[in-house]
Write a structure and sequence with these properties.
Keywords: NADP, Oxidoreductase. The two termini are about 15 Å apart. Helices cover about 45% and strands about 10% of the residues. Helix 1 runs parallel beside helix 4 (about 95-115). The protein has one domain (about 25-220): NAD(P)-binding Rossmann-like Domain (Rossmann fold), CATH 3.40.50. By secondary structure, the chain is an alpha/beta fold. The chain is globular and about 45 Å long. The longest helix is centred in the N-terminal third of the chain and has 26 residues, at about 30-55.
Length: about 220
């Protein structure tokens, strides 16, 4: 950022799935939570000032933060999306850990919208699709099973580009959800919608609780 003063779109799309059991980050966090959640959140926080500065000189909704979730959230995440006790003490169930990290991205997209929407920044979540990438390199048996329903990796790029650049997206889509290959869609599961809402909005505040926990974990690295 010493060389750049403008950032129009931040795509958070780093991810890992089903690493060897017991894998942790250098800081000691469960590896999927660290890579898919804590890292992107810290990265976004470090770039937030630049995003806000850019938004001041841009049309509302053109500056965006894009979070990468997954269809896995709809199919496999537990009721309510995240069980906080299991986030704090990593489970041995890799499928559950992956699901938690992906709903975490969704939670962040929603919470970030609350915090930066007044600056004209759109925070939006996208599911890039089922793709032929190396994401499941640690679960080759699963990859071979689902291979017939996977699409070329470039198709996922279409979804991400739509979320970040499409003129169809405006401030009214803050906290929105984009599905393959560039369509705006309502969150399908009612229990997730309840978790996305604060207690004051009639929800259970779980997204906010997860955000606050993550903020504490990354605070010393800012």
């Amino acid at each position: 950022m010493k060389r750049e003063s403008k950032l129009d779109v931040l795509w958070n799309n780093a991810g890992v799935s089903r690493p060897p059991l017991g894998s942790v980050s250098r800081q000691g966090f469960e590896f999927m939570m660290a890579t898919n959640c804590l890292g992107p959140l810290l990265f976004t926080q470090l770039l937030l000032l630049c995003l806000k500065t850019t938004a001041k000189a841009s049309s509302p909704g053109s500056v965006r933060v894009v979070w990468t979730s997954s269809q896995y959230v709809d199919l496999q995440s537990p009721k309510g999306g995240i069980i906080m006790s299991e986030v704090k003490t990593a489970t041995k169930d890799k499928a559950k850990s992956y699901g938690a990290s992906k709903i975490g991205n969704w939670f962040w997209g929603s919470e970030m919208a609350r915090k930066v929407g007044q600056h004209g920044i759109v925070s939006i979540i996208q599911n890039p699709g089922n793709l032929k990438t190396n994401l499941m390199r640690h679960a080759k048996w699963m990859y071979s099973t689902v291979y017939p329903i996977l699409h070329m990796a470039k198709m996922g790029a279409f979804t991400e580009l739509f979320a970040g650049l499409s003129p169809e997206i405006s401030m009214e889509h803050n906290r929105g959800y984009v599905i393959p290959w560039g369509r705006i869609h309502d969150a399908p599961r009612k229990d997730l919608l309840v978790s996305l809402k604060s207690v004051e909005e009639g929800g259970n505040g779980r997204a906010e609780e997860f955000w606050n926990w993550c903020e504490k974990q990354i605070a010393k690295y800012k």
